[in-house]
Amino acid sequence: MDELLSRQIPYSAEAEQAVLGSMLIDSRCVADVMTRLHADDFYIAQNKEIFEVVSTMFNYSQTIDPVTVLDGMRQHGVYHEDTSRQYVMELMSITPTAANVMRYADIVKEKSILRSIGETAAHISTLVSDGTGDSGEVLEIAEREIYNIRQGRGSAGLESAQVIAGEVWKHLGELAANGGVIPGLPTGVPELDDILTGLNKSDLILLASRPGMGKTSFALNIAVNVAQKSDTSIAIFSLEMSKEQLVSRLLSSLASVNSKKLLTGRLTDDEWKRIAYAAGMLSNSGLLIDDNSMLTVSDINAECRRVQNLGLVIIDYLQLMSTASGSNAESRQQTVSEMSRMLKIMAKELNVPVICCCQLSRASAQRTEKRPILSDLRESGSLEQDADIVLGLYREDYFNREAESHNVAECIVMKNRHGNTGTIKLLWEPEFTRFQALDTTHEEESY
After folding, report:
1. Are 84 and 70 in contact (CB under 8 A)?
2. CA distances from 245 to 185, 216, 296, 325, 392 (A)
3. Distance between CA 41 and CA 47 in Å, rounded?
4. Known catalytic residue at 14
């Protein structure tokens, strides 16, 4: 108990007083302070009350000076005859200058964040000692509360279009200096990169198809290409296949060794050498794999925040994360809608492209024309709404064994917020579970 009492709660009385004094001395700084601080950031009750009064006056566009603030304190019932007037005058006298108000505000905010962390730690400690939940529940609460603190700290607010335009202009100059290369991560299919301008930061990309079309293989192909062409980490979350199965596919693709041979180990000397070389490439790559089949969007978000130099997230696949809260279709649609929105928010917060595989409804298989369309996205129209890019995979010979073209796949860009849609022809190599670009032409249509 003595140890607890001796611990000092993080706060700075001087900084809190300097912020209030600055606003009383020069009301022009009030707007700036309001974008940085909230009343709860103040620890001393009297300072918090004064800030709440000033904040209310600011919201109603009232004049802010010592006289009006004292009157506002009377109206809000926080004026004390013996001390309030003297304290307001003291705030102005002890403030060095209003010019440094944002530095004072930063100190107040920093102390507030430290207090929030301490309160969260105490809450978590109480949950642990009370035994009110299992380890998974307590961990999720801990990560959520810490993340909420971090979000509050990183809030940027409104920014001038002039400033943003300057940043865009600078970025354009950098692209031009680099020879006009695509800004996003390369998929390994040049024609697709031309349409999408690569995989861009904060994009939610849905890779959709009916089962058996090869969406997992295509996603892995992209992951390997990104790993080879960039020095970033790629996080792969597989809710269907084990990590050993995924790595076997990756080795088969990289080494050009029939995937069936990896099941038996019957390899030639040359194939062993190629597999060893492929294994070395994987070992030196930034690929990270989690095959926990019980993952939620929150779990994935939490894991990704711990990854250093994260460049890409791949999730296989969406419907396996869907745990309906009820048995009716409406509840399932609501669950998928929530996950879809959470995935888009995650992509934006992590500032990396997120590729999420998903299954199309049976409607596409029941039509005469079986190529996927946006309305085939299962469960919820919010998938189409939240996604920046929707890619559909289609193989004619899967549905028609007598098709003229065998092992030819189509990657159909069904939605693209960055520009055009179109269709890319791919070569499907089933023995290596690998897609490759088939030609250098594609059909484009206006989005």
Report:
1. yes
2. 25, 11, 21, 31, 24
3. 10
4. no
Q: What's the per-residue H, E or C state across 108-122?
A: HHHHHHHHHHHHHHH
The stretch 90-108 carries a mean pLDDT of 91
Q: What contacts 362, CB < 8 A, 6 or more positions away?
A: 210
Tokens of 430: 């089933």
Nearest Cα to Cα of residue 287 among 228, 346, 353, 218? 228
Range 2-153 has CATH code 1.10.860.10: yes
CB neighbours (10 Å) of residue 233?
20
Sign of the Cα pseudo-torsion (233, 239, 243, 245, in order): negative
Query: Over the stretch 39-89, which tens digit does the pLDDT of each residue have?
Result: 889 999 999 999 999 988 887 778 899 999 999 999 999 998 889 999 999
Which CATH superfamily does the domain covering 183-445 fall into?
A: P-loop containing nucleotide triphosphate hydrolases (3.40.50.300)
3-class secondary structure, 408: strand
Question: Given a cut of 60, is residue 3 above it in pLDDT?
Answer: no
Q: Taking residues 111-137, report their average pLDDT.
A: 82
Distance CA 65, CA 54 (A): 9
What single letter denotes the amino acid at residue 386?
A: D
Write down the domain spans for the chain: 2-153, 183-445
Residue position matching structure tokens 């013996």: 82
- In the set 240, 338, 349, 384, the catalytic residue is 240
Contact 318, 356 (CB under 8 A): yes
